[in-house]
Amino acid sequence: MAGKAQFGSKIGLIAATVGSAVGLGNVWRFPAETQSNGGAAFLLLYIACVFLLGIPVMLAEFSLGRGKRSDAVGVFRKLSPHSGWWIVGAVAILASYLILSFYMVVAGWTLEYLWQSVTGYLYEPINAVAANAGVEGLEQQFKLRMQEFIVQDSRPVIMTYIMLLINAGILMMGVQKGIEKMSNILMPLLFLLLLIFSGVSLTFPKAMEGLEFFLNPDFSKITPSVVVNALGQAFFSLSLGMGILITYSSYFPKNTKLTRTAVTVSMLDLLVAIMMGVIIFPAVKSFGLDEGGLEGATLVFVTLPEVFAQMPVTQLWSILFFLLLLVAALTSTISLAEVSIAFMQDRFKLHRTTACIAVIAPLFVLSTLCSLSQGSLSDFRIAGFTLFDFLDNTATNYMLPLVAIFTCIYLGWFAPKGYFYNELTNHGSISTRIYTTLLFVVRFVAPILIAVILFAKIFE
């Protein structure tokens, strides 16, 4: 596509693509999944799934985007113009937009907790209670604080609106000046904060117990359910099936080595997840907070503030953590929004500013409804779920696996002959044996394994 935007440097390309994968799922979903699925045994399965499933599917999406330099619908229309394969891209765009609508709400919660950490309000009323009531009283107070904030009608909505405006400002600046520049700043900051927290966590009194749970596998913990969950986490953490990787790879220069890029992005994404484990498990073991399981929202907004409240310079650690979380939230929401913005630009030939407004404006309504569904609209339910949970369940558990399955089927069986080979190898730059192996995974292994995840979730 003439005049198509692209990333300006290799570092910017990697930073932006890693940022599109690293997000809230790495920070709260991975530790929770690891604890509930047997610790180190789950970690080993997760690593295996990243390499056996994640990288090949990522390469399939990269080859579509870089090859045809278009949005998630456009790549299928260009490759197979007289077929219905474009529906796969359309489902990916819809799924990413639904996820974006409730991710913005979580991003707003994160901004609120960062603000409360900066002002000290998050801890001031609680420390006095904790002095008399101990750890159990401390936990109860943080649970009440989380519930009080989330179920409010106005404050969470205001914070969500602020995050929407921040996203709009960055996105309107474009691919290089907006997304790439933001990623070049925020991704090093994220890794620096992770490194600091990892170092601090290793000084806790029961750090070795936490690391043993996380890194010393008990293979008796491996069950079919744990394998399925590991596949699901690898799939989710790499942003497969969302249209993000197709969209971002359409900004890759033509000489980008796709295999090297996929391995680098997957390794860095894996590193973030492992560092979060190093941070979480020594902390919860040391402060006796690992009973009863870790859950996403509870882990981030209750368990970790409990840890900070029992550490010296509580406010500093709280500020740094919620800054880390906000960085993860921002890179996630930016990449999710870019999927729809690219579609609006490519399909309807809109100016970027107009496309950004067209994508962000409806979110002021949809994200508001998601936020209120946790409060005053909580009695309004779809199939037993609040709107927030319904969108989460529908998009992440069903739509994303379907997109990934049909993307692999298309690349493996229906794409023009030689297309996948030429894109994957840069017209012959890697060995035929490597290509043959990757093609086998894309044709057979990945669709079958992802289908197992899908059916397991349907019938669980």
From TrEMBL:
<keyword id="KW-0472">Membrane</keyword>
<feature type="transmembrane region" description="Helical">
    <location>
        <begin position="85"/>
        <end position="106"/>
    </location>
</feature>
<keyword id="KW-1133">Transmembrane helix</keyword>
<feature type="transmembrane region" description="Helical">
    <location>
        <begin position="7"/>
        <end position="28"/>
    </location>
</feature>
<keyword id="KW-0813">Transport</keyword>
<feature type="transmembrane region" description="Helical">
    <location>
        <begin position="185"/>
        <end position="205"/>
    </location>
</feature>
<feature type="transmembrane region" description="Helical">
    <location>
        <begin position="395"/>
        <end position="413"/>
    </location>
</feature>
<dbReference type="Pfam" id="PF00209">
    <property type="entry name" value="SNF"/>
</dbReference>
<feature type="transmembrane region" description="Helical">
    <location>
        <begin position="434"/>
        <end position="459"/>
    </location>
</feature>
<feature type="transmembrane region" description="Helical">
    <location>
        <begin position="40"/>
        <end position="64"/>
    </location>
</feature>
<keyword id="KW-0812">Transmembrane</keyword>
<feature type="transmembrane region" description="Helical">
    <location>
        <begin position="316"/>
        <end position="343"/>
    </location>
</feature>
<dbReference type="InterPro" id="IPR000175">
    <property type="entry name" value="Na/ntran_symport"/>
</dbReference>
<feature type="transmembrane region" description="Helical">
    <location>
        <begin position="225"/>
        <end position="249"/>
    </location>
</feature>
<dbReference type="GO" id="GO:0016020">
    <property type="term" value="C:membrane"/>
</dbReference>
<feature type="transmembrane region" description="Helical">
    <location>
        <begin position="355"/>
        <end position="375"/>
    </location>
</feature>
<feature type="transmembrane region" description="Helical">
    <location>
        <begin position="156"/>
        <end position="173"/>
    </location>
</feature>
<dbReference type="InterPro" id="IPR037272">
    <property type="entry name" value="SNS_sf"/>
</dbReference>
<protein>
    <submittedName>
        <fullName>Sodium-dependent transporter</fullName>
    </submittedName>
</protein>
<feature type="transmembrane region" description="Helical">
    <location>
        <begin position="261"/>
        <end position="284"/>
    </location>
</feature>
<dbReference type="InterPro" id="IPR047218">
    <property type="entry name" value="YocR/YhdH-like"/>
</dbReference>
